[in-house]
Amino acid sequence: MIRRALACVSLFATFASAVALPACDAPTLPQDMCSWLKDENNCWQRFAGDVACAGSQNGNCGTTTACGGVPVEAGVSSPTTGTFAERDKLDICARSAGGQILFDPPLDASKFPLTAVTFKLLDPAGAPCAEGSYAGSETFSLKFEAHPEGNPLILGGTFGIAKTEGTVATFDVSCPGGAEQYHFNGYFLDKCLDQSVITPEAELAFPSAILESSPGAPEYDVGGETVAARDGFVRLRVTFPVGEVEYFNCRVPAPLPLCANSVKDAGEASTDCGGICAKKGLLCPTESPCVVDFDCASGQCAAVNGIRRCTACADGLTACGGACVDAATDEANCGSCGTTCGGTNTCCTGACVDTNMDIANCGACGTTCAATCASGVCT
How many C-alpha atoms does 127 have within 13 Å on its Cβ side? Predict the structure, then answer.
């Protein structure tokens, strides 16, 4: 069916360029979408031919469909696959086979799953070859650049469809060139589908698109085991009479692990500390928001002007591991947090010393000897 439409379009364009044709009466436009879908030469069918042939001439122009209709297989990597360089800058997707997909405005991973996108496709030379926008499965527009001297002929232009919900849905269709505009009533479409007036093939030709997206997931621990991070993605597919065509499938780098991504995630008392992060030893500094004492490096979470915050330790004490300690004498935090005094050593004035032989701390901190210290006794 699509080959016949393409041949008709190509033959007419070639013939018209060589012979001046008399003006033709404008055809009677169909009154309902069912009749329009059954028309093998409607503008959706013709546009599908351009998409197929554009894929044949330049597989990097947003399709992987050969001229004549070889659809994309779901889940199979294709020239439309690409990658964003940074998770925080989702404006350029570089495709593995060359070329780019530009998103304007840039995508925001925090707003996935997406409900709308606007994009432009560049070929490997950086030249625009296609663009489009998506606002719903039956509300989108697609444009292909014309190649009037190509073989096969590609007329290009913009196809658009917009669905308006209501008691009865309506569909506004604009065809490439702007000469054909339709306002269809969904009632007639439902009625003819119920009566099986249109064929299954024509039903499959109904203009529709699918936008899929996932933000991915960070690395996380479950029962002591680490689950690897998962990349996100954004993918657009359109159902044409020639089959399903994938416009892009862009990988979004996985988010950084919780407690290390500079974002206050659910379960954290403050950004990257306290709450679930406290179990990793990441406690919140003074003045950070907190929920319980365990969130804080000082071990003290109290209301300050009505807001719970980590409070500072008393003068002379240091916040270590969720408690206020005296680093001058604390043998688990001697001089600084985490410095431990082992064996016979004792923490004296912030330093680990052996009181068995230290003449400045003989037997106990601060006990000095005039000569020597042996077994903790001045001699």
Answer: 8
Q: What is the token pair recorded at 115?
A: 């409900």
Q: Is the dihedral of CA 112, 116, 118, 122 positive or negative?
A: positive
For residue 135, CA distances in Å to 4, 69, 162, 332 come to: 32, 26, 9, 60
Continuous segment of H or E residues that includes residue 243: strand 243-252
Side-chain half-sphere CA neighbours of 87 within 13 A: 19
The answer to whether the CB of 81 falls within 8 A of the CB of 247 is no
Number of H helices, E strands in the chain: 5, 22
- What is the pTM assigned to this prediction? 0.65
Residue 86's closest CA among 186, 231, 211, 225? 231
| Angle, vertex CA 168, rays to CA 184 and CA 114, nearest 5 | 85
Q: Are 115 and 107 in contact (CB under 8 A)?
A: no
- Cis check for the bond before 241: say yes or no (omega within 30 of 0): no
Residue by residue, DSSP assigns 78-116 as: -TTEEEEEETTEEEEEEETTS-EEEEEEEE-GGGPSPS-
**Residues 335-374: tens digit of each pLDDT:** 998 899 988 889 999 999 999 999 999 989 999 998 899 9
Measured from the Cβ of residue 66, the count of other Cβ atoms closer than 10 Å reads 14
Q: How far is CA 201 from CA 43, 160, 163, 275, in A?
A: 16, 21, 22, 57
